Amino acid sequence: MISLKPDFYIKFNCPECGSNDTKVNDIVFQGIHILADCLCEGCGLEFYSDLPTGQALYTPVSFGKNNNKLYDKYNVGWFSNPLFESYISKNDDPINIDKKVFKTTKKVIILNCMDYLYGHVLLKLFNAEYYLDRYKDYGLVIIIPKNFGWLLPDGISEAWLIDQNLKECKNWNSNIENFFKKETERFSEIYLSLAFSHPDPSGISIHKFAKHKEFNMDNYLDDINITFITREDRTWETDGSLEDNKLISKFFGKFNIRIDARKSKIKKQNKLIEKLAMHLRKTLPDIKFNVAGLGKSIKFSSCVNDLRETAVDDDIEKTWCSIYSKSQIVIGIHGSNMIIPSALCGGIIEILPENRYGNIVQDIFTRYERRKSLFFYRFVDEHSNPKRIAAVALSMIKDYKSFDLNMSSKNLKHSIYNDTGFWKNEREKNDLELKRILNDR
Ligand SMILES: [Zn+2]
Hints:
Layout: E1 2-5, E2 22-29, E3 34-40, E4 46-50, E5 62-64, E6 70-71, H1 77-88, E7 97-101, E8 107-112, H2 118-125, H3 128-134, E9 139-145, E10 158-162, H4 174-184, E11 189-192, H5 207-210, E12 225-231, H6 242-254, H7 258-283, E13 288-294, E14 305-306, H8 314-324, E15 329-333, H9 339-344, E16 347-352, H10 370-376, E17 377-381, H11 386-398, H12 400-407, H13 421-440
Parallel strand pairs: 8-9, 8-11, 9-10, 12-13, 12-15, 13-14, 15-16, 16-17
Antiparallel strand pairs: 1-11, 2-3, 3-4, 4-5, 5-6, 7-10
This protein binds zinc ion (ZN).
Residues 14, 16-17, 19, 40, 42-43, 45 line the site of zinc ion.
């Protein structure tokens, strides 16, 4: 953790002359970034520098207060440019901050989840459990955009819910900065969470956030639900890469028919999803095939249970979570829209476009390890057609028993096969199971 009070974290080098003879005058809340307001005793540069939290743990950014210079030594423009721009165009727009105090405490850890990307907010929030479990003498204060309030876990001391949409979270708003300064005066001891951008899923109980239990694997072969997560800004297309389609969209945009092009892509995606449902039902006629996600510009036929919405609120998010937690398999295109579904469902099939290879697994919240993880988390390329994806999904259902019997850790314990009374029952059970699996094939 990073100390903020009574002592500041002070390990900053001057970005201009490299001197470590620097002084921290103050800690400032920009929004996504929490910054040290520094002075270089060597060359006199006044600068702001990132405290090592979130993405800044790996790629901290500095900029001069008066020389109009950004020091981005890790070359992370997506992270550094919005910060610098927010400094140049700092605003004092009125802002509504809903301060919820659940318990009063003088010693706190602050977890800053502010971000302009949905997945980043979510993943930073999942760091909360680590502190709740280990630092019971400290209160946990979560700073987060208001729309994420429904995900707050029990046990935190405070939540500062900032009423900004994600785009606005890029901004540096002096009212939020002042709120942070004033509120932190109440505490005698403050640490800042590291807020890992990709916290280790093995230490996180998703139901504490999503308020729904993970899919119960005892029911894996009963009442099969397969859920497709759609998004209209990134569509599943079997012809042409996403990159090609972006270019086409840009070209069409010039002729002012971009909306028609977008609608045509969504229409094609809907047809692919309907075909997928059809292929699955050829083998498993009784499955329930759900579609969830944001945007419903084009209707589906009655072959799918359409749960899409044009806007989300807490109730819709919770309804979707209840569907994910009942779904043996969730299918969707790569993106932060897969984080919560993958954490709650049995297994996933992700359509991974080539231009996202570098982001593989970042949006998947794995529940299992080793071989089980390979069985339940499948990636297919962006050109995969409905028949091929259906084949993968069907295998994940039909071949599960065989996989579980032969390869799951619980069936590979020597003790259950030892020559004891227990052995006989277990062996017979397994033999029967195996016969049933072979007959099913
Ligand atoms: Zn200097």
